[in-house]
């Protein structure tokens, strides 16, 4: 990491010059952790008036956390934030807004039922006689804002009827109505079409020219290169480099994002053999939303043999989880294609069907979808097996307890006893409980979605060992992961997804952080890849 | 266990004891100096009076544990009482028998078929040695479907034959005890179908049934607000009197129905896989579904049970009050919900017990009794009941301690925050759903 810092120019080496580079926001050794898991550490960052500053890094690098600290969303953090050279500590989003700092979250905060103008002034409506909402003033003010942005939106149209790109612009107008001098956008283009992106970029450049300081995050390196004046790369919650965009190539940015050593033990990988347990052919998934049908998976093909671990890589929203959920019968929408288990085509329509076929899914969202937090370890572990252990529907408490005790021991779940509530366990141990739930029913295919999300490093290692052990016992495993080192460590092969399409399956030898990132990032293509090598 | 915690766990029973104590202390005495409240006669009367609410509350508990609600039970009970009264007093193909006979046939066929499948499944499992490491057993077409279907058809035909023979004369006790709950069961099944298949919210689906069942009851009864009187011995069989008698001079018959029902369903919730699934679905339906629980099937069954118990309550109502009335159960659903809630079952589902409901029902009954013994105006009684509901639930949910703490300005005596959710803060813009915010946080912590 330090060599990357030495090799690339840092912020200190490009001193500010002229009025346009007045520093408006500065962070000094800012850090943040969530219950012991450090997500941001000693980050120095600065933002100048009139610049467009891109914040890049892998999922979980700490981009959103940094922005949320600046926006007053996170109020307990370490270090200092300075606005206009003055140390501040925002007590909340309202404080930040008063100081001219606005944030536009990836999930837009608009009320679809209200008009654009009403959304812009939501909570701050000008009143007539202190009682009635002055609609005429709202609409007029909104029209002024829209004209200032040079965009074509009717302030009287319902936000729900606007396109996502237009909704984004409404958010920007809202921020401007708050006299924002510092505007932060988290993944503003993730849901936009190419033309919508162009409009957004035009507006962003215009705002920057007017002196607004803008921070944005993006996974698309081409966008960063096209739009940003300066780039800051974060990795594992630490600051790697800040540099003017001219001095960094797309390849150099990618290297800075992923460049870290894998310090974890690999397993002795026996060659996977035998007939495939799971075969997926032309898997498609269409989901329905307010805007009609959308295809989220375009023909995914792979085979999985006993003892093999297939990693599924890609960016957030590239359709990784949807693959697992489609196989498990838990995806919302219309599924196409063919799934075969032991060479025999199966029709899995519900998790119950999947369960009967020996397919198990460990969901990404452990707390909401994986566990009953208010129940004991025993009840959670035994739940999928209750029916199988019961005779004539009558539960066999003895067997349930024995099963739970066996799994707690095998997975070395750290708890006082099996009666302890799952809510009181650490993230790593909760994850073991979720995996343990499925071991009781002896699955043959185990689908893991982000198996180490929100787990600290030591516990991660234990989960990895557990996954290796399960594979060694003949389970076929498919795992989705946003963390490159994890993906490389676990996988025998890596399937890479990009925007719902399978862009390739890399063998153990071919898979590196760069090759995966090149297949995963939309818009990087061959050009950026060439620059990286 | 820590004594304070034990006290906190059993506070409901202490509440019941407290109410009994208050009742005994305030109770008027007979001329011979005996305490009226504590007399056996009085206490069994209370038990008799709470039986109808109790039966309905039993079904309601299961539905609420699942995270649902059944508003239709009052109307279904009223409608059932009309059907029952008409079956008892009118011979031939009346609207009541036209509905009740097919309902009984269908319900019996499905119940027997399901039971047969269930038994075959259990037998097949019994032979499997490695029970712990085993998936669902495929029974094959014969034992899995054809034989149960045949058995179901046979049972349906048998019940149809039995019930149909009663049509030309009038229905006897046994026949109404079979036919009326079966009819109500079908109404419950309609609720369940709309909720499970139609994805309607339970509140909406059962509200619609609440209105419809009242209409069905009035149409069946013949005219609006019709009361169908039952005079045992003159227009109905004398044997029907057994349903309001006191068995061996000890326990009122309706109470036996109530007690047996609550014990049976209490055991089902406690000791069967079905019971486990009810709690699991109420606790986190998504996690339960992803754990392979057949959520739709369990939900459907719960509404069926709730409807059936409302029908049984309808029969007991006819026995007790010697009449069938379409609006007999107006407000009953709310009494039942109140009893369930007083019993400590969370309206969010997943937490509570039938034992709690039993105590809740008793608290309600004893309270009415005490107020009546004191000759307190019935409108004041309603007011007091309302206060009791709020008071008990405040104590149940442990909100009282928090309220007091806040009132004193001291620190809140809440449970320590959960390890990982402690830091989760939602952007105060308000438009965002909390779980979205939490997911964002999780994205970041990964």
Q: Could you walk me through the main structural features you see in this protein, from its secondary elements to its overall organization?
A:
The complex is a heterodimer of chains A (533) and B (446). Chain A is α/β, with parallel strands linked by helices. Chain A has 20 helices and 22 strands. Chain A folds into three domains: 177 residues, Rossmann fold (3-Layer(aba) Sandwich), CATH 3.40.50; 72 residues, no CATH class; 249 residues, Rossmann fold. In chain A, helix 5 packs across helix 6, helix 9 crosses helix 20 and helix 19 packs antiparallel against helix 20. By secondary structure, chain B is an all-alpha fold. In chain B, the strands form two sheets. Chain B has a two-stranded antiparallel ribbon with strand order 1-4. In chain B, strands 2-3 form a two-stranded antiparallel sheet. In chain B, helix 4 packs across helix 12. Chain B is globular, with a radius of gyration of 24 Å. Chain B starts with a helix and ends with a helix. The C terminus of chain B is likely disordered. The interface between A and B is large, with 78 and 56 residues.
Annotate the secondary structure layout.
The complex is a heterodimer of chains A (533) and B (446).
Chain A: H1 2-7, E1 23-34, E2 37-48, E3 52-56, H2 63-70, E4 78-83, E5 86-88, H3 93-98, E6 101-104, H4 116-120, E7 127-128, E8 132-133, H5 135-149, H6 164-177, E9 182-185, H7 194-209, E10 213-217, H8 221-227, E11 230-235, E12 238-244, H9 250-258, E13 278-289, E14 292-304, E15 309-313, H10 320-328, E16 334-341, E17 344-346, H11 351-356, E18 359-362, H12 366-370, H13 377-382, H14 386-389, H15 397-410, H16 427-439, E19 445-449, H17 457-472, E20 476-480, H18 484-490, E21 493-498, E22 501-507, H19 513-520, H20 525-532
Parallel strand pairs in A: 3-10, 3-11, 6-9, 9-10, 15-20, 15-21, 18-19, 19-20
Antiparallel strand pairs in A: 1-2, 1-4, 4-5, 7-8, 11-12, 13-14, 13-16, 16-17, 21-22
Chain B: H1 3-9, H2 11-26, H3 40-65, H4 73-89, H5 95-127, H6 140-166, H7 173-196, H8 202-221, E1 228-229, E2 246-247, E3 251-252, H9 253-271, H10 273-283, H11 285-290, H12 295-321, E4 323-324, H13 332-342, H14 354-373, H15 378-396, H16 399-408, H17 434-445
Antiparallel strand pairs in B: 1-4, 2-3
